[in-house]
Amino acid sequence: xIAGKKVTLxxxxxxxxxxxxxxxxxxxxxxxxxxxxxxxxxxxxxWYEKSIGDERxxxxxxxxxxxxxxxxxxxxxxxxxxxxxxxxxxxxxxYLNKGYGTDAIKTILKFAFGNLNLNKIHLTVFxxxxxxxxxxxxxxxxxxxxxxxxxxxxxxxxxTLFMSILRSEFNGT
Length: 173
Ligand SMILES: CC(C)(COP(=O)(O)OP(=O)(O)OC[C@H]1O[C@@H](n2cnc3c(N)ncnc32)[C@H](O)[C@@H]1OP(=O)(O)O)[C@@H](O)C(=O)NCCC(=O)NCCS
Prior knowledge:
The protein is α+β, with helices and mostly antiparallel strands. It has helices at 17-24, 27-30, 41-51, 100-114, 130-138; strands at residues 2-3, 8-11, 58-64, 67-78, 83-90, 120-126, 142-153, 156-166.
């Protein structure tokens, strides 16, 4: 268990897959993610099994008062260059915009910099995902670059932003 101020991060259990499957097939949640096709329960199970023991991709369940509200992960962990990609999804819609995403990210940053000895956490975010960009900025992420007309959605192209935070920039809380 990794305790934050508002959330707890724990290992993702097989029993959590029902929630994951529900969220990953909800267009309101996946609007900001890179998914295109609906995901079957079988694909979800395969993804989970593949993730077990994967030293480069670590997934955590985000809990509030023992309720599983979303997932967060460190991906493509690069143990030589000491960096990783961050991924996050708050799937329970009643829990959006209440600061849980910010707390989950700050909690995993503290763990990544303080326990895993990583030096940089980076991510990509669609420019139109204003809530996510704001959340990352609140956590100390800086914009690093723009990939122009990078993603095609609903008949038009949108930019993707690169954002990152260095260990030296993280204030530790
Ligand atoms: C991105 C995500 C993790 C943020 O989590 P969250 O718990 O809702 O975020 P927080 O409440 O901590 O912060 C959101 C901030 O964005 C602001 N915000 C929300 N919608 C906004 C919008 N359309 N424009 C500007 N700001 C917006 C909120 O007001 C809040 O800022 P504030 O605290 O200054 O008021 C969550 O929205 C999510 O999981 N979305 C679905 C999946 C997704 O898009 N993941 C990210 C992929 S890169």
